[in-house]
Design a protein that fits this description.
Elements: H1 14-35, H2 45-58, E1 63-67, E2 77-81, H3 83-107, H4 110-120, H5 123-129, H6 131-149, H7 155-170, H8 178-199, H9 201-207, H10 212-215, H11 223-241, H12 250-258, H13 263-275
Antiparallel strand pairs: 1-2
C-alpha cells in the first residue's frame, strides 16, 4: 500500500534531487546498520518523505558523507544521518514486519512469512523504543484486515483505519507540533488508502479481492468520482501541512504533496482511458 508518497523527479532541480536522494540513502544505510542488510528490501520513498518532513520541522544537526553499497557498488551515493533518519529507518522496518504478518495471515504466502522473519529480528528493540507507534501499526492493520474480511462497503471506515496508522507515524515525539502532525498524518493515510483502492480496482475485481469501491457496488472505474475523494482528502492534508513552520527542504516537500502524489493517479487514469 505504500509507495505513493514520492517526489515528481522531473520537476526537481538536480541539487534537490540529490538532497532527497541523500535522505533516502540515509534511511537505507540506517536500516542496514540498525536492522540488517536484508531489511533494506522493505525500503520505500514514503519513509524518506517522513524523515524529510520531520527534519524540516525540527532542523536537527546532520552528519553526511558519500558511500558505496551493495546496490551501488561502483559510484558512491551521498547520505545524511540524524535522529529522524534513524526514526524513519525503524518505522520502515516496523511497517514491513506487520504488513508481512498480515499477508501471511490472509494469504498464507510463504514469502511473506519468510520476510516477516527477516524484519522481525529487531522488532523487540523497535517496539521497546516506539511502543505507541508499533501498537498503532499492529492495531490498525488488524482492524483493517477485519473490515476487509467483512467486505466493508464504506470506504471511509477502511480509509480512516489507515489514517489512524499514519497519524501515529508522523508523530515522532509528543510536543507542541504533535496535534498538527497527527491530523496531517490522518488525512495523508486516508489519501494513500483511497488512491491505492482506485489504482488496484481493475486488478482486485479481476482476482476477486476486497476493494472498498467494489464493496460499495461500483462496477467499473470512475476516476471523476475518485478524484473528488482524493482532492478533498489531500486538501485537508496540505491545510495541516501549511500550518507547520517549514523552511528547510520545503520545496521538496511541496513537490511531493502537490505533484508527486498524483503521478500514480494520472498514470492509472490514462491507462484505463486507453483500455476503453
Amino acid at each position: 500500500m505504500f509507495g505513493y508518497v514520492n517526489v515528481n523527479w522531473k520537476e526537481l532541480p538536480e541539487d534537490r534531487k540529490n538532497r532527497f536522494g541523500s535522505v533516502y540513502c540515509g534511511v537505507c544505510r540506517r536500516i542496514r546498520e540498525q536492522s540488517g542488510q536484508l531489511s533494506r528490501l522493505g525500503l520505500r520513498y514514503d519513509i524518506a518523505f517522513l524523515s524529510t518532513l520531520l527534519m524540516s520541522l525540527y532542523e536537527p544537526e546532520e552528519e553526511s558523507g558519500p558511500n558505496a553499497c551493495a546496490l551501488h557498488p561502483i559510484s558512491k551515493r551521498p547520505w545524511v544521518d540524524n535522529e529522524f533518519v534513524r526514526y524513519g529507518a525503524d518505522m520502515n522496518v516496523a511497517l514491513a514486519y506487520y504488513n508481512c504478518l498480515d499477508d501471511w495471515k490472509d494469504d498464507r504466502r510463504r514469502s511473506a512469512k519468510a520476510m516477516a522473519g527477516v524484519f522481525g529480528k529487531n522488532m523487540s528493540r523497535i517496539e521497546k523504543d516506539y511502543p505507541r507507534q508499533c501498537a498503532a501499526i499492529a492495531r490498525c492493520i488488524e482492524k483493517l484486515s477485519q473490515l476487509e474480511q467483512e467486505n466493508c462497503p464504506n470506504p471511509d471506515e477502511t480509509a480512516n483505519c489507515f489514517g489512524e496508522l499514519m497519524a501515529e507515524l508522523l508523530v515522532c515525539q509528543e510536543d507542541f507540533w504533535a496535534p498538527t502532525l497527527r491530523e496531517m498524518g490522518f488525512h495523508l493515510g486516508r489519501f494513500i488508502y483511497l488512491l491505492d483502492a482506485a489504482v488496484d480496482f481493475t486488478k482486485d475485481k479481476k482476482h476477486g479481492k476486497y476493494n472498498p469501491y467494489i464493496a460499495m457496488g461500483m462496477e467499473a472505474p470512475d476516476w471523476a468520482r475518485w478524484e473528488d475523494y482524493l482532492v478533498l482528502t489531500m486538501a485537508r492534508c496540505t491545510a495541516c501541512y501549511e500550518r507547520l513552520p517549514l523552511v528547510q527542504d520545503k520545496d521538496i516537500l511541496d513537490n511531493a504533496l502537490y505533484s508527486g502524489v498524483w503521478i500514480h493517479c494520472k498514470g492509472k487514469k490514462k491507462e484505463e482511458e486507453v483500455r476503453k
